[in-house]
C-alpha cells in the first residue's frame, strides 16, 4: 500500500460560521471550542496510530517493506515525541492554545496542526528554499548545504552564520535524505506510482522532494512527482 492511514494527517477543522445575529463573545467562545475539539481529535489520532504501530512487524524502517507502514512509523515517531509538552500546553491554555502555538510551532504534533499553521510553515520553508537557491551555492559552498537548506533539513538558526552550514551535520542529513527519497521513490513505483497516492500524500511527497506546494493545483503536483519518478 502506498498511503498511510488518514489518522497520520490532521483531521478536518470545522469552524463556526458567524452571522449578523452572533455576538462577538459567542463567536469567539465557539471558535475556541472548535479549535480545542480539533486538538483533541488530533491527540486521539496519535493514540490510534500508536495502536497501529504496535501491530507493525518491526519498528525499524529498514525492515518494513510497505510505504504505508514506513510513513506511519515516521509520522508517529515525530508526533509522539511532542505529545507531553503539547498536552501540557493544552491543559494550561485551553481555548487559547492556537494563539500560543503560533509562536512555537515546532512543539505541535503533525496531527494537531491547523490549516493556517501548516500553510504559514510551508510558506516560510519555501521562502527559505528560494533564498538558498539564490545564494550562489554550491559555487561558494557545498551541494549538501544547498540541499539541506532547500529541504529544511537544518534549523534556520544556522542561516545567521553565513552561507555554509557545518559540513559534518549538513552532509550527514543530506545523505540520509537522499537515501530515504531513493527508497521512497522505489516504494511509490512498486505500489502503483503516483496514481496510487491520495492527493494529500502527493502534496506531502512533493514537499519532501523540494517542490513548492503553496497555491499549486493537485494535477500540477501529480505531474511534478511523475517527472521526478
Q: Would you tell me the structural class of the helices and strands?
A: mainly alpha
Helix content: 55-70%
Number of H- or I-type helical stretches: 9
Main beta sheet: none
Low-pLDDT residue intervals, each spanning 5 or more residues: none
Q: Roughly how many Å is the radius of gyration?
A: 19 Å
Number of strands: 0
Form type:
globular
The total number of structural domains is 2
Distance between the termini: 17 Å
What does this molecule look like?
This protein folds into two domains: 1-113, no CATH class; 115-229, no CATH class. The model has no long low-confidence stretch (mean pLDDT 85). It contains nine helices and no strands. α1 (24-54) crosses α2 (67-80) and α8 (199-208) crosses α9. The chain has 229 residues and is mainly alpha-helical.
Topology:
Blueprint: H1 24-54, H2 67-80, H3 83-93, H4 97-101, H5 115-133, H6 143-150, H7 167-190, H8 199-208, H9 218-228
Keywords: Membrane, Mitochondrion, Mitochondrion inner membrane, Transmembrane, Transmembrane helix
GO cellular component, one term: mitochondrial inner membrane
Subcellular location: Mitochondrion inner membrane
